[in-house]
Design a protein that fits this description.
Leu-rich_rpt; 12 strands; disordered N terminus; LRR_dom_sf; Leucine-rich repeat-containing protein 2; about 375 residues
Length: about 375
């Protein structure tokens, strides 16, 4: 018996497939319309937009206002123009930083400064970060033209007394190192405007001699072990920004109103139970951030919406984790966490400054996203 072969008219097969194609195209169109109206598609569009902005180095404030992402075409054009301007500015800044007056060093293969550095006493700026360098040499006193000492995230355990010879020093950043004290000779740098000692974890006091820093407008001593506001800080008459968050403060001094120029005061992650009425005398204070978990008393005027002061009371929700690392690993992980928290709060505070009012509550969410 032979094989049975079924023969169709080609027109019948063609009509069948045309019908299936039409149905598939109709389904695709319907699915596209559904996705267009879907919130998930909107979120995807926003994240793609945010990823592109981050890739181009566009600041968050340019496209995100009060938590909402503006993905409009006109905004894209504006951001593109601003980005070109910013890139031009960064290019100029990069050229400036690479000039013959600037010394830069980074990388964990560096355990000490190069010997040739001591011959370059004409330098005005040092930018040294993420190295294993532990000691700043005493010959730093030879750099009389020094204006900026930017030394974050190294292994520096002490600063030499000779740093006090740098009479032209404007900025000193020794954040996230291993300092346990600050030399009193630093008080001789009377032109110092910015001092950042944050994230050293072990600092408990600042020498009284730093009272001489009358030009200081920015002081950051967060993420250490201060139990009170240093007396020398209260005598910095030009101080505008003070960050003493994440320390061991239980109260504030009654003469805190000596800081008449203070504009930003960061106190969160301490154990303050009350805020003194002297804070109301700080007429230029525009931002006050505290942790409200332990607060039982505060001047009601701080919460008055008619004043220019933005008062933020953060409610922490600590989670106790069982630690199984050894001592050194625990310290390093703590340092990294403090650095992350600081970057988060920096972005949060910048956003607060752009808002007309303070949000009624804030929830901090930590997550990772692979773009």
């Amino acid at each position: 018996m032979g094989h049975k072969v079924v023969v169709f008219d080609i027109s019948v097969v063609r009509a069948l497939w045309e019908t299936r194609v039409k149905k598939h195209k109709a389904w695709q169109k319907k699915e596209a319309e559904r996705l267009e109206k879907s919130a998930l598609e909107k979120i995807k569009e926003e994240w793609n937009f945010v990823a592109e902005c981050r890739r181009k180095g566009i600041p968050q404030a340019a496209y995100c206002k009060n938590g909402f992402v503006d993905t409009g075409v006109r905004l894209l054009d504006k951001i593109a123009r601003n980005s070109l301007t910013r890139q031009s500015s960064l290019s100029k800044e990069g050229h400036k930083r690479s000039s013959e007056f600037v010394f830069e060093l980074s990388g964990e293969h560096w355990k000490e400064l190069p010997d040739s550095l001591k011959e370059q006493t004409h330098l005005k700026e040092w930018h040294i970060s993420n190295t294993l360098i532990q000691i700043i040499p005493t010959y730093i006193e030879l750099f009389r033209a020094m204006r900026i000492l930017d030394l974050p995230k190294n292994q520096i355990s002490r600063l030499p007394a000779e740093i006090g010879r740098l009479k032209n020093l404007k900025e000193l950043n020794v954040s996230f190192n291993h300092l346990k004290s600050i030399p009193p000779e630093l008080g001789d740098c009377e032109n110092l405007e910015r001092l950042d000692c944050s994230g050293n974890l072990e600092l408990t006091e600042l020498p009284f001699e730093l009272s001489n820093l009358k030009q200081a407008s920015f002081v950051d001593i967060s993420a250490n072990k201060f139990s009170s506001v240093p007396v020398c800080v209260l005598r910095m008459s030009n101080l505008q920004w003070l960050d003493i968050s994440n320390n061991n403060l239980n109260d504030l001094p009654q003469d805190i109103d000596r800081l008449e120029e203070l504009q930003t005061f960061l106190l969160y992650k301490n154990k303050l139970t009350y805020l003194p009425y002297a804070l109301l005398n700080l007429k230029k204070l525009t931002l006050l951030v505290v942790s409200g978990d332990h607060l039982v008393e505060l001047p009601t005027a701080l919460c008055d919406s008619s004043t220019p002061l933005k008062f933020v009371s953060l409610m922490d929700n600590p989670i106790e984790n069982t630690q199984c690392q050894d001592g050194d690993e625990l310290i390093e992980s703590e340092r990294d966490r403090q650095h992350f928290d600081k970057e988060f709060m920096k972005a949060y505070i910048e956003d607060l400054k752009e808002r007309e009012s303070v949000p009624s509550y804030t929830t901090k969410v930590s997550f990772s996203l692979q773009l």
